[in-house]
Amino acid sequence: MFNILILAEENDKTRELKNRLSREGYVCLLMPPGEEPEKLAAQHTARLVVVDVGAEDDIPTLDTAGESKGPMLVAAVFRQRLAELGARDDVDDFVLKPFDVDELLTRIRKLAARAKATPPSDIIVAGDLIIDTARCEVSLAGAPIDLTFREYELLKFLATNRGRVFSREVLLNKVWGYEYFGGDRTVDVHVRRLRSKIEEFGQIYVETVRNIGYRFKRNL
């Protein structure tokens, strides 16, 4: 899913924009602009935000994840606000008001395609499997997967090092810690449980390398 948040008053143009985006498969929400757009963007997990900026309104900053870049931002502004955009490197695109719906749609499509091609650094995508390391969440084909802490840490470590083979001893050290005194079978048990949760559709994610250990499949 690609969530788009439109922060604008509802009118004929914004309703048309929302409806056309929804028909194209985007998850689109239209709501009046608030005083804290970054919180709204985070709450709705928006990948792209369209903001209708009034003559006196501040152009918002949407850094919702600390040091990482927040959602892409498209601003609809009056011509007299163009000088402000020159000093902002966090506004990904803009249109002049009164905006043309077709032009704005084209700009949104291009940004969405770019965002899909380059997922955020805290998102690991492997086929239908998505690991959100910022939220410690895992989903498969859009459905959330309930993992234990160790299952999640094991999956994250393997997926972060996709294609590399790790022995059971190394996995114990990296995932459980040097002070853990459990045996190799601990890794095997957790891999088996993890597979039962994420490989239910027949797709193999964690491969066994005979006589060595495990790796996360490279080509997904």
TrEMBL record:
<dbReference type="Pfam" id="PF00486">
    <property type="entry name" value="Trans_reg_C"/>
</dbReference>
<dbReference type="InterPro" id="IPR036388">
    <property type="entry name" value="WH-like_DNA-bd_sf"/>
</dbReference>
<dbReference type="InterPro" id="IPR001867">
    <property type="entry name" value="OmpR/PhoB-type_DNA-bd"/>
</dbReference>
<feature type="domain" description="OmpR/PhoB-type">
    <location>
        <begin position="121"/>
        <end position="218"/>
    </location>
</feature>
<dbReference type="InterPro" id="IPR011006">
    <property type="entry name" value="CheY-like_superfamily"/>
</dbReference>
<dbReference type="GO" id="GO:0006355">
    <property type="term" value="P:regulation of DNA-templated transcription"/>
</dbReference>
<keyword id="KW-0597">Phosphoprotein</keyword>
<dbReference type="GO" id="GO:0005829">
    <property type="term" value="C:cytosol"/>
</dbReference>
<dbReference type="GO" id="GO:0032993">
    <property type="term" value="C:protein-DNA complex"/>
</dbReference>
<feature type="modified residue" description="4-aspartylphosphate">
    <location>
        <position position="52"/>
    </location>
</feature>
<dbReference type="InterPro" id="IPR016032">
    <property type="entry name" value="Sig_transdc_resp-reg_C-effctor"/>
</dbReference>
<keyword id="KW-0902">Two-component regulatory system</keyword>
<feature type="DNA-binding region" description="OmpR/PhoB-type">
    <location>
        <begin position="121"/>
        <end position="218"/>
    </location>
</feature>
<dbReference type="InterPro" id="IPR039420">
    <property type="entry name" value="WalR-like"/>
</dbReference>
<protein>
    <submittedName>
        <fullName>Response regulator transcription factor</fullName>
    </submittedName>
</protein>
<dbReference type="InterPro" id="IPR001789">
    <property type="entry name" value="Sig_transdc_resp-reg_receiver"/>
</dbReference>
<feature type="domain" description="Response regulatory">
    <location>
        <begin position="3"/>
        <end position="112"/>
    </location>
</feature>
<dbReference type="GO" id="GO:0000156">
    <property type="term" value="F:phosphorelay response regulator activity"/>
</dbReference>
<dbReference type="GO" id="GO:0000976">
    <property type="term" value="F:transcription cis-regulatory region binding"/>
</dbReference>
<keyword id="KW-0238">DNA-binding</keyword>
